[in-house]
Prior knowledge:
Number of strands: 19
Structural class: alpha/beta
Oligomer: single chain
Strand content: 15-25%
Shape: globular
Number of helices: 12
Amino acid sequence: xxxxxxxxxxxxxxxxxxxxxxxxxxxxxxxxxxxxxxxxxxxxxxxxxxxxxxxxxxxxxxxxxxxxxxxxxxxxxxxxxxxxxxxxxxxxxxxxxxxxxxxxxxxxxxxxxxxxxxxxxxxxxxxxxxxxxxxxxxxxxxxxxxxxxxxxxxxxxxxxxxxxxxxxxxxxxxxxxxxxxxxxxxxxxxxxxxxxxxxxxxxxxxxxxxxxxxxxxxxxxxxxxxxxxxxxxxxxxxxxxxxxxxxxxxxxxxxxxxxxxxxxxxxxxxxxxxxxxxxxxxxxxxxxxxxxxxxxxxxxxxxxxxxxxxxxxxxxxxxxxxxxxxxxxxxxxxxxxxxxxxxxxxxxxxxxxxxxxxxxxxxxxxxxxxxxxxxxxxxxxxxxxxxxxxxxxxxxxxxxxxxxxxxx
Length: 408
């Protein structure tokens, strides 16, 4: 397959190049001028081409149309959770997310969806799954009865981490602090797992060539996670400069998930149905989250895109709103935001050599939009072409010979 007449973004420099792209066996085989066709041709008509994006924080098993996060699947019939997750995965791919890190599913349905995607039964991004989230005994477990795995003490954490790996997990997710979308008896300001428990999770992950993602909002939890060797800190809505300095020292990557608040409050009627204590917490951290993100950027913490798709009103398929918030509210340049969703995201999932850039030898994960996202980051909310593994899954303007029709 030959892709021609596109403006290819170099995500390292911010420059565009008008080269042709030859795709062979799912990979970018050659990039150059005037390449001869050797099969199907995709003429993108001057569209802007970018590498497929990586969303490092999604929850595809959660019903985002429910305003109440308290055990939304309690009345679900068998199969409904997996079907929801499969539909969400397809929406991720169609909006330009060709790889995603699933950091807390529901009774391992998301791992089944991952395996079905890999088998070619259904359509979706490359999924990297954590299985259940490891948590201390907490009032929020009944909220997320299929998402949380309670384990208290280092030995119990080791056992729980091994259990996730036995179910096919690609990484381990831990709670270093309380959450915001949680029971009224849990506080995002409070530490949950202590250093020895976090270190136990990291030990098991490292033994198995995996990594740990740590949910952490407050400064003490952020420091604990970084010092324990967690690869990423998720959210950090209450973080301060000192905690980000510790992250920088340890090479810990921040997944900020800034869009959760704006996504919930986008529909006033929907937000009004969210439980009062959850809505109040979202309102409380609205300003601190942006200030924390700006502080992390000033310190030089590496940032990778994550949306927290799965929180109330935060729907799969609208993932690119995260980049808008990064640029319009947190002060990132469009190129910095795109870099977080390509090069940095690929590094988080150990795919730095295969994803994140349009260069020879990498997987042919390519997306396109009609307007330059470096001039208007909102152009990414209107992706019109999606290729993954050299197969076309979205083609709004008929650039190529047709799209894949696999599965749900």
